[in-house]
C-alpha cells in the first residue's frame, strides 16, 4: 500500500519539477549551465562521488554507484533547493531568491547484483536577462537590445548498477534529455527604426548514455579504497526552433533553418578516488573533464575550451538508530569544488568555485533528511563582466521502504 | 527530538531567504558575446538618380495670389506672370439714388501679400487691361499657368512703382470706362442685378507687367482686391460715395506664368515626358514652384533589394541636400512632398503623397541642411510583389507650388543624395 503511495508521490513530484534557476548571464550559451549531477548528498560533498557507493542516501555521480542501499527496500529521494544569489559587475548589483523542488529519484534492486535508479533530475539551466548595445552594421548609430532567456533541460533516466565481482561494479544510465530553451530578443526603437522582438522557442531532446565503474579494494579494519571512472559520449541533441519576429506592423514566422544553434553535450570523462571507513568516514576526490573545445557556439567571439572540475568531499558519522545522542546520530559532510569553465569571454575564463557543508539527520528509523549549504561564486569582475555569488540551501529527503519479500 | 527537525528547517529557510530583498538589475554585455539572431544593417549602396522635370501644367487658380512681374536670373532664366481677375457687382445700392450723383473716378486697389520674387528696390510697371473673353474653367474646374484669355491690348490703367515703398496700390482706371459703368449702374438693373450678366458685360481684368522691367514679380492678395467707383452725391455737404466691385469667383482668379530657359542649363527642357539628366546640368536637379520644375528620383539598382533574403526592411530614408551656397539669395522651401510618377513623369497626385519632409536646417555649417524623406512604406509596397517597376519613379515637389516661388537646387553629387535602407536580417 505504502509503495503505491510512494509511487504516486513520485509521479506527482515529477510533474512539478523545476530546473534550478541561478540567473546567470553565463547560462546564455549553448545548452545552458550544466548542473554537473550535483544533487542529493553529492551537493554537500562539493559534487564529489565518482568513487562513493550509495548507502543510506543515493550517490548520483557514477551509474555504477547505485548499489549499496539497503537490499529489499526501495528508496525515494526528493530534493528541494533555495538560492539567494547576488550578481555584480562592479557598478550594478542584482539580487534574487528562488526556491523550488529540484529532483526526484526512486531506487531499488532487481536482483541482489542489479540495482536500479530512476528519476528526473535537472540537467541544465537557462536564466538570463542581458542588455547589449549594438551597432547598426555599416553605420555609426547604435541601438539597444535585451536578451531574456529562460528554460532548461531535464534528464529522465534509468540507471543500472551491476555487481561484477567482489571488487568491481559497473553501470550505465540510459537518459532522455528534454526541455525548452527560450530566448526573447527585444530591440528598442531608435531614430526612425521601430522596435522589434524576436522569440526563439527551442525544444531539445535526445537519448543519452553514460557509463561508470567502481573498483574497490578492501583492507582489514573495514577500510575500503575505491577508484571510480565515468564516461559519457558527446551528443548532439535534436532541436527544433520556433522563431517569430514581431515587427511593428506584422508577425513573421521564420523558417527553421538556423543551422548555427546546435545544442550539444560534450564528451566527458571522470575519475574519482575514495577512502572509506565503513559506517564512519569517507573522503573522495574527483576530477571531471569535458571536451568542450570540439563544440563551438554560433559566435566566433566566444571561445570554448575544455572544462576541468576538481572537487573533494568528506563525510563523517553514520545514522545509528540505537544511538540516543542526536549529535552522534548525525552525518557531517563538507566539500568544495573548483571548475575552470568551458567559456571564455573576451579572453577571460568564466570559472566557478564553491564550498559546502551539510548534515544528514535521521527522521525516524530509516528515513533521513539531508541539509546542505553552499557558498559559491562564478565569473569575474574583470572587463565589466558579471560575478555571481550565491548561498544555496539544499534539502533532500531519503525515504526508504522495505519491500515485503 | 526528530520531530523538531521540520519546524527548525522551515524557520531556518524562512530567515535565509527572506532577509534579502530581490533587486533585479539587468547587466550589460558586449554585443560580440551575445548570440544575437538579428542584425540591423544600413544599406546605402543603392544609387539615386536625380533629374529635372518640367511639369506641363501647374494649377494657379484659386490661390488667393495675384502674381505680376518679370524676373530673370542665370539659373532659371526669365519668368513672367500676368494675373487674371473677374469682378462681381457692388453689393447693395439703389439705382434711383444715383440720379443726382456725379462720376468722380474708377480705381483698382491692390494690397501686397509679400509673396515676391526678385529685387523689391527696383521699379516695376504694371498695366491693367480689360478682358474681351469670359474666363472659363477647364474640365478639372481649374486654371493652369499656361491658360490665357483675350484682352484689349489698350490698357485702361497703369502704374510704375517701387514695391518696397508700398503696402498697397491704388491704380486709376480709364474714366471713359468708369463713365460707362456708372451709366449702366443707373440704367440697367438687369446687368447690375445679376452677377452672371455683369460678367458677360464686364468679363474682368488682367494685370500685365511691362517687360522692360525684369527685376521682380510681386504678389497681391486676391481676396482684398477691389475695383472702386467713386461718385459725389450733392446735398448740403457733398458726399463722397464708393461702390466696390470685389472678386466674384475666386477660382477664376489665376496667374499665367511663362518662362524662357534660353541661356541656362535648362534650355533643352521643354517636355514633361523627357527629364533633364543632371549630367547635363552641373550635377544639379532643379525645383521651382512657379515654373513647375520638379525633381525626379530614380533608384536604378533597387531591384537588387529583391536578392536579399531572410530579412525585412525596417526603415528607408532618402536624403536630399540643397547645393551649398545656392540658397543664399532665396529661402529654401520649408517642406517638400514626394509623389509617385509614371514613365511619362506624370504625378499620381490622386494616390496621395508618398512622403513629406520639412527642411532640416544646419544653421552653423550649412553642410547638413537637408530634406529627409521616409520612404519605408513606399519601398515596402514596391517589394511586396517581388517586382520593382523600372518605369516608376518619384517626383519631388514643393508643398505649395504657387506660394513664395519655392526654389531648390539639389546636389546630385557624391553622397549628397542618398538612399539609406535599414535592413533587419535574421
Q: In words, what does this structure look like?
A:
The complex is a heterodimer of chains A (405) and B (426). With 405 residues, chain A is mostly beta strands. Chain A has one domain: Outer membrane protein transport protein (OMPP1/FadL/TodX) (Porin). Chain A has helices spanning 2-15, 41-44; strands at residues 33-34, 73-88, 93-111, 114-135, 142-163, 168-187, 196-218, 223-232, 235-236, 238-246, 251-254, 264-265, 267-277, 281-291, 302-304, 307-316, 331-340, 343-345, 348-349, 352-362, 368-379, 387-402. A 14-stranded antiparallel β-barrel of chain A has the order 2-3-4-5-6-7-8-13-14-16-17-20-21-22. Chain A has a 3-stranded antiparallel β-sheet with strand order 15-18-19, with no helix packed on it. Chain A has a two-stranded antiparallel sheet with strand order 9-12. Chain B folds into 2 domains: 40-56 and 272-425, Sandwich (Jelly Rolls); 66-259. Chain B is built from 4 helices and 25 strands. Chain B is mainly beta. In chain B, a hairpin with a 5-residue loop joins strand 13 and strand 14 (239-246). Helix content of chain B is 10%, strand content 36%. At the A-B interface, strand 2, strand 3, strand 4, strand 5 and strand 6 of A face helix 1, strand 1, strand 2 and strand 19 of B. Strand 4 of chain A pairs parallel with strand 1 of chain B, so a sheet runs across the interface.
Amino acid at each position: 500500500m505504502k509503495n503505491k503511495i510512494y509511487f504516486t508521490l513520485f509521479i506527482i513530484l515529477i510533474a512539478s519539477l523545476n530546473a534550478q534557476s541561478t540567473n546567470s548571464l553565463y547560462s546564455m550559451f549553448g545548452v545552458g549551465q550544466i548542473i554537473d549531477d550535483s544533487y542529493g548528498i553529492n551537493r554537500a560533498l562539493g559534487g564529489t562521488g565518482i568513487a562513493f557507493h550509495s548507502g543510506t542516501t543515493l550517490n548520483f555521480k557514477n551509474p555504477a554507484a547505485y548499489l549499496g542501499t539497503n537490499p529489499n527496500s526501495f528508496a525515494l529521494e526528493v530534493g528541494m533547493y533555495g538560492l539567494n544569489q547576488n550578481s555584480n559587475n562592479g557598478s550594478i548589483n542584482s539580487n534574487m531568491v528562488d526556491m523550488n523542488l529540484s529532483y526526484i529519484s526512486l531506487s531499488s534492486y532487481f536482483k541482489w547484483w542489479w540495482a536500479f535508479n530512476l528519476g528526473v533530475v535537472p540537467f541544465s539551466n537557462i536564466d538570463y536577462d542581458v542588455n547589449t548595445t549594438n551597432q547598426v552594421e555599416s553605420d555609426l548609430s547604435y541601438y539597444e537590445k535585451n536578451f531574456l532567456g529562460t528554460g532548461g533541460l531535464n534528464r529522465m533516466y534509468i540507471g543500472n548498477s551491476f555487481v561484477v565481482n567482489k571488487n568491481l561494479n559497473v553501470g550505465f544510465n540510459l537518459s532522455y534529455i528534454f526541455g525548452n530553451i527560450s530566448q526573447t530578443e527585444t530591440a528598442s526603437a531608435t531614430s526612425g527604426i521601430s522596435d522589434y522582438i524576436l522569440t526563439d522557442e527551442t525544444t531539445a531532446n535526445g537519448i543519452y548514455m553514460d557509463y561508470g565503474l567502481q573498483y574497490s579494494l578492501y583492507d582489514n579494519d573495514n577500510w575500503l579504497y575505491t577508484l571510480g571512472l565515468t564516461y559519457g559520449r558527446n551528443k548532439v541533441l535534436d532541436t527544433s526552433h520556433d522563431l517569430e519576429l514581431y515587427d511593428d506592423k506584422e508577425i513573421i514566422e521564420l523558417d527553421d533553418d538556423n543551422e548555427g544553434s546546435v545544442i550539444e553535450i560534450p564528451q566527458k570523462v571522470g575519475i574519482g578516488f575514495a577512502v572509506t571507513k565503513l559506517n564512519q568516514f569517507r573522503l573522495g576526490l574527483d576530477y571531471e573533464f569535458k571536451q568542450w573545445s570540439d563544440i563551438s557556439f554560433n559566435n566566433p567571439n566566444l571561445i570554448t575550451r575544455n572544462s576541468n572540475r576538481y572537487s573533494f568531499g568528506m563525510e563523517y558519522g553514520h545514522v545509528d538508530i540505537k544511538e540516543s545522542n542526536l549529535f552522534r546520530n548525525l552525518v557531517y559532510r563538507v566539500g568544495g569544488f573548483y571548475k575552470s569553465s568551458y567559456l571564455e569571454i573576451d579572453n577571460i575564463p568564466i570559472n566557478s568555485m564553491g564550498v559546502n557543508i551539510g548534515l544528514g539527520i535521521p527522521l525516524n528509523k530509516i528515513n533521513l533528511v539531508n541539509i546542505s549549504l553552499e557558498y559559491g561564486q562564478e565569473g569575474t569582475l574583470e572587463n565589466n563582466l558579471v560575478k555571481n555569488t550565491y548561498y544555496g540551501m539544499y534539502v533532500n529527503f531519503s525515504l526508504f521502504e522495505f519491500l515485503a519479500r | 527530538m526528530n520531530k523538531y527537525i521540520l519546524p527548525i528547517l522551515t524557520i531556518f529557510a524562512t530567515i535565509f531567504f527572506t532577509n534579502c530583498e530581490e533587486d533585479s538589475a539587468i547587466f550589460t554585455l558586449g554585443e560580440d558575446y551575445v548570440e544575437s539572431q538579428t542584425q540591423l544593417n544600413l544599406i546605402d549602396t543603392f544609387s539615386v538618380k536625380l533629374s529635372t522635370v518640367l511639369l506641363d501644367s501647374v494649377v494657379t487658380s484659386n490661390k488667393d495670389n495675384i502674381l505680376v512681374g518679370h524676373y530673370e536670373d542665370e539659373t532659371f532664366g526669365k519668368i513672367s506672370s500676368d494675373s487674371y481677375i473677374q469682378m462681381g457687382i457692388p453689393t447693395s445700392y439703389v439705382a434711383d439714388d444715383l440720379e443726382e450723383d456725379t462720376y468722380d473716378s474708377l480705381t483698382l486697389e491692390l494690397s501686397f501679400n509679400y509673396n515676391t520674387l526678385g529685387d523689391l528696390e527696383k521699379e516695376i510697371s504694371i498695366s491693367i487691361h480689360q478682358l474681351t473673353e469670359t474666363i472659363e474653367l477647364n474640365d478639372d474646374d481649374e486654371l493652369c499657368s499656361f491658360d490665357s484669355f483675350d484682352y484689349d491690348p489698350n490698357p485702361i490703367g497703369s502704374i510704375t512703382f517701387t514695391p518696397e515703398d508700398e503696402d498697397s496700390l491704388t491704380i486709376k482706371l480709364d474714366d471713359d470706362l468708369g463713365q460707362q459703368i456708372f451709366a449702366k449702374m443707373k440704367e440697367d438693373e438687369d446687368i447690375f442685378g445679376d452677377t452672371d450678366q455683369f460678367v458677360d458685360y464686364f468679363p474682368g481684368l488682367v494685370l500685365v507687367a511691362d517687360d522692360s522691367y525684369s527685376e521682380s514679380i510681386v504678389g497681391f492678395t486676391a481676396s482684398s482686391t477691389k475695383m472702386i467707383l467713386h461718385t459725389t452725391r450733392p446735398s448740403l455737404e457733398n458726399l463722397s460715395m464708393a461702390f466696390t466691385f470685389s472678386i466674384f469667383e475666386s477660382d477664376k482668379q489665376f496667374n499665367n506664368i511663362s518662362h524662357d530657359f534660353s541661356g541656362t542649363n535648362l534650355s533643352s527642357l521643354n517636355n514633361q515626358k523627357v527629364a533633364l539628366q543632371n549630367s547635363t546640368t552641373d550635377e544639379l536637379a532643379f525645383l521651382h514652384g512657379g515654373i513647375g520644375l520638379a525633381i525626379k528620383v530614380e533608384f536604378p539598382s533597387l531591384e537588387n533589394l529583391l536578392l536579399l533574403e531572410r530579412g525585412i526592411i525596417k526603415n528607408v530614408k532618402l536624403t536630399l541636400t540643397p547645393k551649398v551656397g545656392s540658397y543664399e539669395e532665396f529661402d529654401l522651401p520649408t517642406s517638400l512632398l514626394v509623389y509617385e510618377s509614371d514613365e511619362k513623369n506624370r504625378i499620381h497626385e490622386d494616390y496621395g503623397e508618398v512622403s513629406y519632409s520639412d527642411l532640416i536646417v544646419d544653421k552653423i555649417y550649412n553642410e547638413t541642411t537637408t530634406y529627409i524623406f521616409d520612404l519605408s512604406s513606399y519601398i515596402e509596397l514596391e517589394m511586396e510583389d517581388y517586382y520593382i517597376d523600372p518605369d516608376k519613379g518619384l517626383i519631388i515637389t514643393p508643398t505649395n507650388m504657387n506660394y513664395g516661388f519655392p526654389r531648390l537646387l539639389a546636389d546630385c553629387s557624391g553622397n549628397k543624395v542618398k538612399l539609406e535602407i535599414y535592413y533587419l536580417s535574421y
